[in-house]
Amino acid sequence: MFNKKKQPPIKSLIAEGSHISGDIRFTDGLRIDGEVSGDISAPEGQTSLLVVSESARVMGSVTADHIIINGSVKGPVSARHMLELQPKARIEGDVQYTALEMHQGALITGQLRPLLEGEEKPPLKLAAISP
After folding, report:
1. Cβ atoms of 60 and 40 closer than 8 Å
2. Per residue of the chain (131 residues), what is the pLDDT tens digit?
3. So what's the pLDDT on residue 131?
4. CA 26, CA 73: separation in Å to the nearest integer?
5. How does 24-58 read in b/e, with b if 16+ C-beta sit within 10 Å?
6. How many angstroms separate the CA atoms of 43 and 49, rounded?
7. Cβ distance 64 to 43 under 8 Å?
8. I need a labelling partner for 73 at 20 to 30 A (CA). Which of 50, 62, 100, 121 fits?
9. How far apart are alpha carbons 22 and 25 in whole angstroms?
């Protein structure tokens, strides 16, 4: 309706109280409520959604198209399209993003780096001033 891409369905869940040790590769959507020790990634070329809930803890790198974080991540985060940091998000690591939405209260200990095509800065669009 408003030219927004439809989010993929969340087909996988790591429930609260669960602890996964090892790398995870996923397609479509993944929600984490438990703990993961390892890298989490979605392949390029498919639309992917990763949700790290308030109760979740991730120790490893995180890579997906659209990432929503409200829990704890210790490791680098790379969002190919959109990164949403909810108020209780805690990230210890460098963050790469194309678009960023950060709510008050979210904390990042690391560097923020925009993912730019061709390493060029996007053109600045200014509002026209009417006489």
Report:
1. yes
2. 444 567 888 989 999 999 999 999 999 999 999 999 999 999 998 899 999 999 999 999 999 999 999 999 999 999 999 999 999 999 999 999 999 999 999 999 999 999 876 555 545 455 555 55
3. 52
4. 18
5. bebeebbbbbbbbeebbbbeeeebbbbbbbebbbb
6. 11
7. no
8. 121
9. 10
- Determine the Cα angle at 5 with ends 113 and 103, to 5°: 45
Maximum C-alpha span of the chain = 63
**Contact call for residues 105 and 125 (beta carbons, < 8 A):** no
Q: Return the half-sphere exposure (C-beta side, CA atoms, 13 A cut-off) of residue 120.
A: 5
How far apart (Å, rounded) are the C-alpha atoms in residues 87 and 90? Answer: 9
